[in-house]
C-alpha cells in the first residue's frame, strides 16, 4: 500500500483538496456511506430488487471509472465485458452448475480474457480511435450473441438460469433479499480492491499517464503494459457485474451487450464524478432512482427532466455531484471567494 495521501472528501482525486489522510484509513464519511447501503436493506424492504440492480450497476460503473477516471481510457463499449460475464455465468448455470460464487469467478475470468484480448487494440489509439474500437467490439459481440441462439438463446434471451442456494443456505427469492446482500458484499469487496489499486504506486502511475502520457516513458514507466493491466482488471470487474445480473435475475438478454447500456454507464459516471471511485456508485444510484421516479411521475416526458438534470450537473457541478459537493464544502469553509 502506498503512503500517498487521499482527500478528506469521499473519493475525491488527490488534486482536489489540501486536506489529506493516509490512504489506508477509512474516513467516517466513507463508513457512513456503506452503513447507509446496509440500512437501505431494512428501511426499504419493498425496493430490494431495485436496490440489487443499483448495486450491480454501481459495480459496473466502478469498473469503468478505473479506466476512464484514472487511466484516461474512454470507452463506449464497456458492455462487451459486462455481457461476457453475464453469459458466462448464465450458460454455466443452464448447464447444471448454479453455485453463485464460482459462477462469479467464471464471469470475471470471461470478462478479463476478453478485456486482455482486446486491450492491445484499445490502448494504442487516440481518444476518438478508442471510442470507435470499444464501440465496435460491443457491437460485434452483440451480433455474435444474436447469431448463436443455440448457446445464448438469441433474441429470446438465455432462460433457465437456476441458481443454487448461496453458501448452501440462502435461496435467491423473489423479494430480492439474498440478491441485495450478495450484491452489496461483492461490491464492497471489489471496491476495496479498486481502492487499493488506485492508491498504490501503480495507481499513481496511471494518473500520470492520464495527465501526460508522453512524459511517463521518460521516467521509465511502461505505459502500454500498465494500460493493458488496468484495462484487464476493469474488464474482469465488469464481467463480475454481469455475472451478478445473471444470477440475481436468473435471465440473460441481448441487452447486456447493447450500446445504450454502455452509454448510460458513461452518463452515470459523469453524473457522479469520474476519477473518484465513489462517483460511479453515487451516479448509478442517482441515475436509476431518478429514472424510476421521473418515469412514474411523467411516462411521456420523463426523458426531458432527466436530460435537464444531467445538463445542470455538468454545467454547475464541476466533477459531477461529488465535485459540486466538494465546491460547496470549500466555499462554506472559506477556501474560495
Structural commentary:
The protein is an all-alpha fold. It has one domain (24-285): ABC transporter involved in vitamin B12 uptake, BtuC, CATH 1.10.3470. The protein is 66% helix and 2% strand. It has helices spanning 28-43, 48-68, 79-94, 100-122, 127-146, 149-152, 177-198, 201-211, 223-249, 259-272, 278-297, 302-316, 320-332, and strands at 5-7, 20-22. A two-stranded antiparallel sheet has the order 1-2. The two termini are 37 Å apart. The model is unreliable at 1-22 (pLDDT under 50).
Question: Concise description?
Answer:
The chain has 337 residues and is mainly α. It has helices at 28-43, 48-68, 79-94, 100-122, 127-146, 149-152, 177-198, 201-211, 223-249, 259-272, 278-297, 302-316, 320-332; strands at residues 5-7, 20-22.
Which shape, going by the Cα principal axes? Answer: globular
Oligomer: single chain
What is the number of helices?
13
Supply the helix-strand structural class: mainly alpha
Q: Mind telling me which CATH architecture this is?
A: Orthogonal Bundle
Low-pLDDT stretches are 1-22
CATH fold type = ABC transporter involved in vitamin B12 uptake, BtuC
Label this structure with key terms:
two-stranded antiparallel sheet; ABC transporter involved in vitamin B12 uptake, BtuC; single chain; mainly alpha
Give the topology.
Elements: E1 5-7, E2 20-22, H1 28-43, H2 48-68, H3 79-94, H4 100-122, H5 127-146, H6 149-152, H7 177-198, H8 201-211, H9 223-249, H10 259-272, H11 278-297, H12 302-316, H13 320-332
Antiparallel strand pairs: 1-2
Helix pairs in contact: 1-7, 2-7, 2-9, 2-10, 2-11, 3-4, 3-5, 3-9, 4-9, 8-9, 10-11, 10-13, 11-12
